[in-house]
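Tutorial handout. Part one gives the primary structure; part two gives the three-dimensional structure as tokens.
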Amino acid sequence: METIYATHTTKKETRHALRFDQVSNVKTFSAKLMLLIGLLLSFTAISPAQTLTLLSPNGGETWMSHTSQTIQWQLNGDYADLYIEFSEDGGNYWYYIAYVPATDSTSELTFINNLYETQTGLVRISLYNDATISDESDSVFAIIQNPIYFYTPFNGQGVYAGVDVTLSWYSYFFDTFDVYYTIDGGAAWTQIASSYTQSDLVWSTPSTLSDQCMIKVADANNPADYGLSATFSLIEVPTATIISPNGGETWNYNSPETVSWSGTNLPYYLYIEFSDDGGQNWEYLGYGYGEATGGSVNIYVPYSSTDSALVRLVDPEYGIVLDVSDQPFHIFVPPVIMYNPWEDQQFYIMEEIWINWWAPDLNQVNIDLSTDFGESWVNVAENIDASAGWYNWTLSGTPSDSCLVRVSDASDATQFGISNRFVLMATPVITLNNPVGGEIWNTDSVYTISWTYDNLNAYYVVVDYSADNGQSWNYLGYATMEAGEGSMDWTTPQLESDQYLIRVRDTYYDFVSDTSGLFSVRSFPDTPICIVSVDSATNNNIVIWEKPASELISNFIIYKESDESNIYLPIGTIGYDSLSIFTDANSNPAIKSYRYKLGFSDTEGNVYPMGALHQTIHLSINKGVSNSWNLIWNDYKGFTFPSYNIYRSFDGTTYEMIATISSSFNSYTDIDAPTGEVFYYIEVINANGCNPTTRGSINSLSNIATNNFLGIDDPLSEMGARLYPNPASQTVNLKLDESGDDYSIQLLNLTGKVVLEKEIVSQVKSQLHHFDVSLLENGFYFVRITTGNRSATTKIIIWH
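Part two.
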């Protein structure tokens, strides 16, 4: 097999040695050719080799600390990121210097040399993603201490050519200095000062532009000892021309105005100075950012009424004045200076705000509001002491984003000040949902206070309660909001009162709140239902409870859930002295499950809260495989229990328990059901028992579900037909025992309209037919079967 060898052998070069072994045992030319093509494709798939060569420092150099130094390299091949390191001990340990991207041409990195002093320095450069491709200095170089620490110039600084600048340094080693500069990287030096004893020096820079400038400070007693600055540049002095304000403009006090300029070679920001006396005196006004060719900044007009205003631009580093306004401009100070409201400030109607102003020359002022940006005004207050400088006002009006406040001289309306535009918003609304008033809550019990808030930005509200109709309030706590809704669980006090109130208010705006109507907190007994069940005697639901010992109860009130979820309506009352069992004569357990609750009233007619709900079990069955029957039911709700008991009967009178299953399940398949009629019901047992005074009860029964709801008197039985389940939910099954005849099947509603019809031709004995009733409305229907001159009709219930 042919083999390709590639070796990276030396530091300064990369060599690839290729050796093609003779292919042996190849029987045909085509096989040799295919192998050679594969090898060529493999070879060409290899990425071009990368080489990395460190050019400088490469040994023998001497670097001075705190000076500008350059590392140079050459990368051939694909673009790669590089990792540069330094060793002070000849390569035993390496320190990170920089991470830099590189191109496949000669590149360099210039930096301030803050590396350790050493005589055995090395630099290493590597591919960031492949450290095996790297190079380092061929031999060591030195880093020596810089005896001068320079404050200015600093690395990369741009110093203006042809101006006076200050050089500043510090030295522990020299007391007397000779100072030089170079503009060619140290090839030639020009002396600035000799035997100089200070550590800062004003230097008149040369007019030649250069980016290879350095300062050398030498020991005047031994010039061979010196320190070097970092490399800096001599650059062209900037020029600037003020565009605005440049004469004749009028500015209003405290309003935002724009200072703009153009120029060349400008620094990235300038100082803005202001004079109100034609340039005799100047004060700092601010600073503005820009580009090398110009910029602008918004400033607020200072308090100075003058016709001799000027602005000038100052270089921030050298204090050079670059330009002054060509002509003076005007500053107008209104008789009333408005501080508040400020621009775009937002307030709610009913919120208290402070209107602030300054009117040193006025005695009394009037205050007006505009909601249409000054087209019309409404008076807020009159004859307010002007020297007070403020007025507390509860906002009124209509929502608007164009509001202004005007403060004017009460004796001369032409002397006024107008605020910035602000926003007046509609007052947000908190709506307390529970309690609303009229409730009776038990003492020392947990109830949920709930509310909505249309301010979706609000996160907290405060909840308080009062037991004396609002004469005093008690803090309940903060509550969080989510999507405009909130709630808090409250354990009611033991203090009984009919004058309780709940209040929910905004954390920051006390005027945004809602208070419930009066409700009562009283001590009263619980009235829990014990069991709800189906009474086999009446085939109606019964509600059973144990009477608490209480003189407060006059009548028990039985509630049943309406067609609207969680809405309970009273369906009957039972006197305290009566047997605590109620029969719901309007219930039909064969159709659905029902939910009940129990409450009570006292002798004064006060109605007390309902207790916990109880829900009956509704059982339905459908035909399974072969003779099996599937039983499905809903959970019993009201108490916990471990299991369901399942009962079956062949005749509807005598039942036997056929299974007990976990209360975690709601279905069961009777795989051993006999042929013919079957009847089922479900039972749960209350382990705590239930004693409604005269008769005990511990179990709750479901409705009876059967495969022949009408029993042996079913008219269809004479025709050998059986219809089930009844009631039905999704599918009705019809089994015909006779064979050979044709049958017509019709399903009619109570008005006699045919809603479903099917023709059966040449019936096969015991054949089972299915009818989809899932789309029919709930209610009673008639099933009519006709064959030959015989016909029979029976009733069926459809209930989904």
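Part three, for discussion. The domain at 718-798 is CATH 2.60.40.3080 (Immunoglobulin-like). Helices lie at 29-44.
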